Amino acid sequence: MNLLEIQNLKVHFPVPRGLFGRAREFVRAVDGVSLTIAPGETVGLVGESGCGKTTLGRAVIKLIEPTAGRIIFEGEDIARLKGAELRARRRRFQMIFQDPYGSLDPRLTVGDIIGEALDIHRLTPQPGARRQRIEALLKDVGLDWSQAERYPHEFSGGQRQRIGIARALAVEPRLIVCDEPVSALDVSVQAQIINLLQDLQHEHGIAYLFVAHDLAVVEHISRRILVMYLGRIVEAGPAKTVCRSPQHPYTQALLSAVPVVDPDSKRKRILLKGDVPSPIHPPAGCPFHPRCPVAEPRCQTETPPLRETQPGRWTACHLVKAENELRAETHRRDSLSP
Amino acid sequence: MSAAAALDRSGMSEKGAMRREALWRNRLVLAGSSLVLLLVLAAWLAPFGVKAKWLRNPIQQMSAGLDADGMPLPPGRQFLAGTDNFGRDVLSRVLHGTRVSLTVGVAAMLVATIIGVWIGMLAGYWGGKMDLLLMRFTEMNMTLPAILLAVALAGVMDGRVVHLHPAAWPWHGLDLQLKRGMVSLFLIIGLVCWPGMGRVIRGQVLAVKAREFVQASRALGASDTRLILRHILPNILPTVLVVAVMLTANAILLEAGLGYLGVGVPPPAPTWGSMLYEGQAYFISAPHLVMVPGAAIVLTVLAFNLLGQGLQEWFDPTRERRR
Amino acid sequence: MTGRFLFRLFWSALTLLGTALLTFLLVNVVPGDVARVIAGPKASPQVLEEIRQRYHLHEPLWKRAGYHFRQLAAGDLGHSFVTDQPVAEAIRARLPTTAALTVTAVVMWMLLAVPLGVSTAKYRGSWFDRSTLVLATLSLSLPAFWLARLLQYWLAYKLGWFPVAGFLGFAHLLLPAATLALLYVGYYARLIHAHMIEVLDSPYIRSARAQGTPERVVLFKHGLRNALIPVVTILGMDVAGLLGGVMFTENVFALPGIGTLAVQSVFNLDVPVIMGTVLFSAFLVVAANLVVDLLYRWIDPRLR
Question: In chain A, which residues touch B (CB < 8 A)?
Fold first, then answer.
């Protein structure tokens, strides 16, 4: 059974306007997304900034109220849950934040930051157990008890991110949404944190929804990858396959932007024209057509559905038909380029 | 732990020590707090001074308190700050006035702070319609000039407010019948002063609420009460403190203004505002009747303003010292 | 732009209505004899009965509110209890004096505050900046009635540089305006200082300096113009606070303005006049806010 199943999730933010602040328009941050995550699996979610991936991540763990759709977590729809009922369920899914500086309360000691979850859910009622648990959690993330009495500002960015991870682990969640957990860190520290996350996954069997704009990181850690554009999933599939042979033109463009170490690489950089369109007025038809290098007339009117093009691979593009054709075409293009 | 990290940490704790040192070295805080301390001491000791006979009774008319023409005496050897038109010792009256000003000022500040923090918190935390409504209400209160609103309130409340303390209770250390007690006075001033606090707190709450650690706690399952009490309130406390100190200064100024207009603590209680009002008729012949209580007001208000200014710089050192 | 204007106008009207309701409730809902509140503790029984008749005090509250607001809508603020003069008329007659005083004062303190704010921001942290800060705090701490008396005594009575009191011409406005200017210059100097610092620290100022723009142009064209925008807003919102100072100053210098009217009404416990001045100043604040808001949009191209 799936740990998490999201069905047609929508998050629309009202744009306040008019005489009485009544909303007439909406930012369609997430516009009909479906996905599944199996227990202990890592799913990567990539896209440019502003594509709605952070909003989706936050809506999944109900930090943002979804406008429509279902969030089925461990067989129960939590999309409409509120108040104490929701708070009790929050133990099961957690989040690791992007900003290691803003995500820790500067007025609490590290011990209290990690211990807060224990206090909220009364996980360690026995005397002494709270301390032991915090000590164990600190050890899990490579810190030690002597640091529990210190304040966040005394730590480096990487250490802070470890504290944030320990906090999320405290409630023994089944799913952790990682919202760009390494993009604010130095490159040398990024690998350490990624490795820590993978170790913890093996140890505790936690599932990750890993949100990032960096495809290289996501490819490394994820089993499956979802590519998001303007509030929709445009391509989904196994990490290796999506990264080696992207089907959607948008994914191809994204991948071409990843720097390659091999100096003999023949890959050609695909430059996208223009900016991401406003999610208030998304373009008709395929949302990607104004920037698409291969767009056809029907892309302007018909919205391509997300179709299974191969077993386990899904793409939302009119031009993607069968895998063989596409592969042949890519091959030909590659061999023609100097 | 790596050497670099150890170095890093020692640097951090040094920063804490520097911060404490900066507080000590902040001359504004130093000047403001020592002045406030001095005033509190004067207020506290004044009644003991009367008992110990080294200070005269502030409401007793002295037999040698007026000159041959029945005019007040200027400052001199016998009366250090002179006497007033009733032959009362101005020094003793001014010192006792400190009690009224400080009690009313601080109590009014507390009232205003409680209302302001409450409303600002509600508006900032829940936002939406609640915010709109509360902020309109705050604006309405801000459109009314404080002093006139206080006067109107005082007129309305006159004699009708339940006195929280028995009238015979020696509030001043003197057995004074207070018709319009200080209780109604500080309530009035508090009710007039809160909107500024409310607006500042709302802005601060909005800023703190948007930070990720609040989201993180919410994701952990923290209740609204927990978020407010444990995360938001501690993070806005410096601002509350700074605004509260400056609010005290304003409350004292307002109390003096009300006393000057004759709607403060009624005579013969020694308040700086009423002393100024009574004394100004004799301004030409006896300027000390205006100068002395006025200087006391300025000194007190200045003390709180300096303290507030200093604290603000200490909490937010980047603002003033950055180059 | 017009939509925005209508929106603001609507809120201004609503704020004013709320304020009027607030003041009405203040007098009418508190427990006890409203007639006595209106007439003050000195009134005789006949007078009280007369007031009850005139203000429909025998009728229920909502009806009274109806009469009250119908009156207000017609611009009628009631009659003074002491002189029986219509309050609206009294205010109208005194408005020019107060307006002249206020404008003179604002010009005076802005002429002082702008150079002070700009130079202390330029040389921030210096000896000059720190002592200006202390002086500004002192200015913030002065009680209006005391400063007015003091200046009157020294500069008018002792030295004879200014007329002592009364209002015969512009010369009579100078000392009262100077009093007000001294009371507010500190606050505005610090306000301009704070906003100047914020602007001077911004990247566009740094790049202007890097391009070799003359410092005078950096400070006044790029710096001050941006720093003054929020200051103007606060100036507009501050009219209510200003009235407190105006009130005491006018009274000390015996200027026949709205402030003197207010102080006299307080001394006489003349509630209709007190309420009238409260409502009128509320109206001024709301109007000033509206004007400033529109001005703001005109000055600041980002909001246009």
Answer: 21, 58, 61, 63, 84, 86-88, 90-91, 94-95, 97-99, 102-108, 116-117, 120-121, 150, 153-154, 156, 159, 164, 167, 170-171
Question: For the whole prediction, is pTM greater than 0.90?
Answer: no
Cα gap A66→A60, rounded to integer Å: 8
Q: Are B65 and B83 in contact (CB under 8 A)?
A: yes
Distance from CA of B15 to the nearest CA of C (A): 21
> In this predicted model, what pLDDT tens digit does every residue of C187-219 receive, in sequence order?
999 989 988 888 888 888 888 888 878 888 888
* 3-state class (DSSP) for residue A238: strand
Helix axes B233-260, B288-315, angle to 10 degrees: 170
* Chain B interface with A: residues with Cβ < 8 Å: 5, 8-9, 12-13, 132, 211-213, 215-223, 226, 230-231, 234-235
Domains and CATH numbers, chain A: 4-92+173-336 (3.40.50.300), 108-163 (no CATH)
Distance from the Cα of B12 to chain C's closest Cα (Å) equals 25
Contact of C141 with B301, CB cutoff 8 Å: yes
- B263-266: long-range contacts, CB 8 A cutoff, minimum separation 24: B263/B150, B263/B151, B263/B154, B263/B155, B263/B180, B263/C266, B264/B180, B264/B185, B265/B100, B265/B104, B265/B178, B265/B180, B265/B181, B265/B182, B265/B185, B266/B178, B266/B179, B266/B180
Q: Which residues contact C72 (CB under 8 A, 6 or more apart)?
A: C20, C279
Q: Which residues pair with A75 in a beta bridge?
A: none
Backbone angles phi, psi at C53, to 5 degrees: -65, -50
Q: How near does any CA of chain C get to the CA of B316, in Å?
A: 13
The ipTM is 0.82
Which strands make up the sheet holding A68-73, listed edge to edge? A23-37, A4-16, A68-73, A76-77
Residue type, A46: V
| Residues forming a β-bridge with A26 | A14
Give the C-alpha distances (Å, rounded to integers) separating A285 from A16, A282, A299, A322. 26, 9, 6, 21
Name chain B contacts of C277, Cβ cutoff 8 Å. Answer: 148
Tens digits of residue pLDDT in B43-77: 888 878 777 777 777 777 777 767 777 777 778 77
Residue C227, token pair as written in the block: 């720093």
CA nearest to A20 within chain C = C7
